[in-house]
């Protein structure tokens, strides 16, 4: 049986010793929700992104640099005239240059202008997945058969 659950007569210790050993006292606990005061304080700007489910990145320069380089390597495997490669390579190269040349996170966010660095990391991860899928899909290759003449007409042809 835990010593805190035993009656005082069974514990064989002085009352002063018991009070000093109590896990919580009224001076260090908010009894409305039973939480110590240090846990009630609002986190600082470096502790939260303010976006649910998105944790603060500890090393955003490093993470973004690695992701952008992986995307660029995937794009290098595509033909140079592929539309996806041309436009994505331009955007990712510019972002990689910004990450390499800026020293603070706020400068990266302001220069790229597409959200917080944590959002940029999610965007880069998604772009890397898409680039790898595009390598498998090979949209730059010609169609197996010709498209119907009214493929893009709306409403559909009768």
Automatic annotation (TrEMBL):
Membrane topology: Peripheral membrane protein
Skewed-composition ranges (Low complexity): 35-48
One BP annotation, GO: respiratory electron transport chain
Xref: InterPro entries: NDUFA5 (IPR006806)
Keywords: Electron transport, Membrane, Mitochondrion, Mitochondrion inner membrane, Respiratory chain, Transport
Region (Disordered): 24-48
Keyword Transport: yes
Cellular location(s): Mitochondrion inner membrane
Highest taxon of the lineage: Eukaryota
Pfam families for this protein: ETC_C1_NDUFA5 (PF04716)
Recorded GO CC terms: mitochondrial inner membrane
Compositional bias (Polar residues): 24-34
Subunit structure: Complex I is composed of 45 different subunits.
Known role: Accessory subunit of the mitochondrial membrane respiratory chain NADH dehydrogenase (Complex I), that is believed not to be involved in catalysis. Complex I functions in the transfer of electrons from NADH to the respiratory chain. The immediate electron acceptor for the enzyme is believed to be ubiquinone.
Family stated for the protein in its record: Belongs to the complex I NDUFA5 subunit family.
Protein name from the UniProt record: NADH dehydrogenase [ubiquinone] 1 alpha subcomplex subunit 5
